[in-house]
Each structure stands twice: as structure tokens, then as C-alpha cells.
Amino acid sequence: MAMLTDEMLLESYHMATSLQLDREFIALLLAEIHRRELMTVSPLLH
Question: Which Gene3D superfamilies match (predicted)?
């Protein structure tokens, strides 16, 4: 995850949610978003 830029991380999260990928994978992305204190707008897993 450290190799992803903030923008790439957010884009990955939005793509994963729109494609309804595995919830555990989405949760990993979301945990990293929270760790970096980034903002995201999505109805899933907030």
C-alpha cells in the first residue's frame, strides 16, 4: 500500500466499491485511507 499515491489509493477504493469486489479487500483500502487521514465519499464501509 505504501507504493500507492494518495490519488491512486482513492481511485482504487472507488473502483473496488463500484465493482463490488471482496469486502475484505475494500476494508484494507479503507483502513489505509483512514491511516493517511484522507477523505472519501462512498456509502460503503464508512
Answer: Sporulation inhibitor A (1.10.287.1100)
Q: Tell me the CA distances in angstroms from 32 to 9, 15, 25, 28, 45, one per residue in order.
A: 8, 15, 11, 6, 13
Domains of the chain, first to last: 6-35 (1.10.287)
Cell of 15: 473502483
Residue 16, C-alpha cell as written in the block: 473496488
Among residues 12, 5, 46, the alpha carbon closest in space to that of 29 is found at: 12
Secondary structure string (H, E, C) spanning 33-45:
HHHCCCCCCCCCC
Q: What is the reported pTM?
A: 0.81
Residue 4 burial (CB < 10 Å; 0-12/13-18/19+)?
middle
